[in-house]
Amino acid sequence: MVETALKDKVASETTGTAGYRVPYRVFTDPAYYRREQEQIFQGETWSFVALEAEVPEAGDFKSTFIGETPVIVTRASDGRVHVMVNRCAHRGAMVCREVRGNRPNLECVYHQWAYDLEGNLVGVPFRRGLKGQGGMPSDFDMKQHGLKKLRAGSVDGLVFATFSETVEPLTDFLGPIVVEQIARIMCKPIKVLGDQRQKVHGNWKLYAENTRDPYHASLLHLFHNTFGLYRSTQTGKSVMDASKRHSLLYSIAASNDDASDKKAYGDSRTFDTEFKLQDMSLLKGRQEFDDGVSLVILAVFPNLVLQQIQNTLAVRQIVTQGTNAFELVWTHFGYADDDAEMQSIRQKQANLIGPAGLISMEDGEAVEIVQRSIIGENDATSYIAMGGGSPDDADHLVTEGAIIGFWHNYEKLVGYEFNS
Amino acid sequence: MDRQAGGAKLKMTSATFDRLRLQQFASDLNATHAEFIDEDRLEEWAELFVSNCTYRVIARENFDRNLTLAAIFCDSRGMLLDRIVSLRKANIFPVHNYRHILGPTRIVSERGLTVTAQTNYVVLMTRTDGHTTIYNSGKYIDEIECDEDQSRFISKIAVFDTNVMDTMMVRPI
């Protein structure tokens, strides 16, 4: 069964038929999901966990997930951000039961074991016994029973964490393209505008594909195409880092030429010259970046998308929930120095993104209609070939190369064949 | 209006009567809002709002923190209509039906014929698989211009407790 996918690939290499095939079972088989949790989320990767701006003051905390593991992100009194597993060292209770807040320390409600904001155990009730009875053994060493600490790192206000002691340093894991793009958007202090959470009934890797896919963006999303926010005719690129696990897709709306774009798109449902807005203030914007780039989708493996769509700025965090579901946590932000007009622009343009977003909502449906159709398929595969069928960068937007890059990386990290 | 029951007399003052009247207008307007959405009469739904209305659908986790990010934010009837045309002609979404269940509408304050009112709501959703689920639950905080002929929303905020949105939101709440 597993050999089929490899055979197809070998066959296409030898017969010269270009195109990459992904076996659909990777989206539905729990064995792959388990291996992903080990090899990816608990493995040699850095996962995004928070914006520094979400935990600005000492005592601030946020609870979130890396893969399926609940973690706490804190700003400790040393001023640094720490990340630890949200599980009491005693008998496994969840220590932090709120989504966010501010506390001087962390305390488990079950037996009041107390931890400082770095995860060190600082208090154990009845440690020395009560009225001369009980108590912990004499060799009990509190330093051995802290919350499991993760290595944490921050790049321009984006906090990442890893379970691995051996993974490459964060900036190497991200690579120069990702680091540069993060710096571009996170160029000055930000202000969090709020969060949105979207539960999508599909495998998380379908969203990884979707966010590495410049091919779909103007063909699924009418708002992108009709209003010229994104068209595959624009000046733009699809590029990956050296490992091909991360992807940058960017485009320049000013490169639109409505007449020739219309010609290129022909009768496409998504280029609808009849579709007009009564209130164009929705799309009012301001050029914020000197490079004129108006759309950036930066997919950072495994669980982050950093985006700029016109004047909307956001991070999207993928939280895996089994083979058939994930939660997408959108944290929208602006800059701390936004004037009133810019705040109003961002507020209106927020209608375009997020789970109710006039553009973004449709990706939820796209993922779900795949998941529903591939159930039970052990042998069938997808066929990915737009742009040539290889994991190559492109200096245009008519390609699926970055999707293939993602799968090349997946083959190395997880594999299509393993002893489960 | 007098009523006699077991010897006691219940008299309705004109102030009470006025209050009840406003409460009826506000309640009726919310019932109509729910009905028009559930029955896909969205173009008529937009007419329930004044032309320079505000309509906001916002997660409690943002509202409670005084953050402005809303799932849906419109500050004109034109923007409401644009969302409706988008639903009709542009957006790709799963087939679904809504069913609103509303709690009583409570007048929180009044200034002449303009009232602030609060109503709890639940939106149940049924998709093509035929299962009905609780899709979104919260409260409306409305500013309503009451009128004998047609009351209208000056503003409506739906603050929803359901912080995790199932798949997406294309239809007004």
Structure report:
The complex is a heterodimer of chains A (420) and B (173). Chain A is of the alpha+beta class. Chain A folds into two domains: 109 residues, Rieske Iron-sulfur Protein, CATH 2.102.10.10; 239 residues, Naphthalene 1,2-dioxygenase Alpha Subunit, Chain A, domain 1. Chain A has ten helices and 17 strands. The N terminus of chain A is likely disordered. Chain B has a single domain, classed as Nuclear Transport Factor 2, Chain: A (Roll), CATH 3.10.450. Helix content of chain B is 28%, strand content 45%. Chain B is an alpha+beta fold and 173 residues long. The N and C termini of chain B lie far apart (38 Å). At the A-B interface, β11, α6, α8 and α9 of A face β4, α4 and β9 of B. β11 of chain A pairs parallel with β9 of chain B.
Counting copies of identical and different chains, the oligomeric state is heterodimer
Strand content of chain B: over 45%
Task: Please report the first level of CATH classification, the CATH class of chain B.
Answer: Alpha Beta
CATH class of the largest domain in chain A: Alpha Beta
SSE-based structural type of chain B: alpha+beta
The backbone outline of chain A, from C-alpha atoms, is globular
Spatial strand arrangement across the major sheet of chain A: 1-10-9-4-3-2-5
Q: Percent range for helical residues of chain A?
A: 25-40%
What is the count of structural domains of chain A?
2
Biggest β-sheet strands, sense, barrel of chain A? 7 strands, antiparallel
Got a strand count of chain A? 17
Order of helix and strand elements from N to C terminus of chain A: HHEEEEEEEEEEHEHHHEEHEEEEHHH
CATH architecture level-2 label of chain B: Roll
Structural class of chain A: alpha+beta
Unreliable spans of chain B are: none
Largest interface: A-B, 39 and 36 residues
Q: Which architecture of the largest domain in chain A per CATH?
A: Alpha-Beta Complex
In CATH, the homologous superfamily of the largest domain in chain A goes by the name Naphthalene 1,2-dioxygenase Alpha Subunit, Chain A, domain 1
What's the mean pLDDT score of chain B? 94
Fraction of residues in β-strands of chain A: 15-25%
- Rg calc of chain B: 18 Å
